[in-house]
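Subgroup meeting minutes
Present: P.N., E.W., G.H.
Scribe: E.W.

1. P.N. recapped why we're keeping a running log of single-chain structure predictions: easier to compare across weeks, and new members can see raw inputs and outputs side by side.
2. G.H. added today's entry (282 aa).
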Amino acid sequence: MQPTARSLVLDLLSTLRRGTMPVGALVAAGEHFGLSENAVRVALARLFAAGRVERDERGRYRLGSAAAPVAERVRGWRSAEAPTRRWSGGWLAVHPTRPPGRGRARREHERALRLLGFRGLEPGLRLRPDNLRAALPELRETLAALGLGPGALVFELRDLDARAEARARGLWEVAALRAGYRRSLEELAASERRLGTLSEARAMVESFRVGGRVIRQLVLDPLLPDEILPGGERAALVDALRRYDRAGRDCWAGFLRRFDVLSHDTPADTHGAGETHAAAFA
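Output recorded in log:
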């Protein structure tokens, strides 16, 4: 996937837990991806106006508060804490009390549901297994921060009848998810073997694109319980991506040092990690 100037800026700045990045670094990185200096500067200006990025007194940039909820969600794949717990058979449900609006509001509403793995059982009723580690009040706050429409009910649901239970368990394409895990494992292994043979610029681009695609996959993964989808293949993919992430840091280290940038994470193309259809994640 070819990043846009907007997505590249957001992805690069999302790697900074502390510190900032100069315009020169953003422009130079953009050149590696065929993006003009003007495109990067225009994207920066628009993101700054929207509160997606912030600027310090030296004219260096960091991620803005308006982009933080999705950025934190994207970073979550690296967490050492398991995001799920044993499933007791219940469900989490979301039902809007009024239409979520149009345009951006509706896209953000749908994005919030997709990022937490909800699928539609009936018109207006979204479900996911109640196996997430976070408690219900925290999940409500997370959904709201990600853009869930105001007034939406978020609640626990149990004791579906047998037919509805079977339909609920079949809302996710399990075979496609498993095939995706296997395909990504192969892609990461092949790319990791190549990285050492590439120039700095080409290695930066490849690690950004390959790592980013797998991060998007994991961020959008519904985190299903073993009763629906055994988690071994996903766990293996997370381990492989952690190894690839270390290799990606090596690819970007020299470039970031030249611009005096302290980066906690490897830059990766996470554009679309929170997309629903054509809606950008931030």
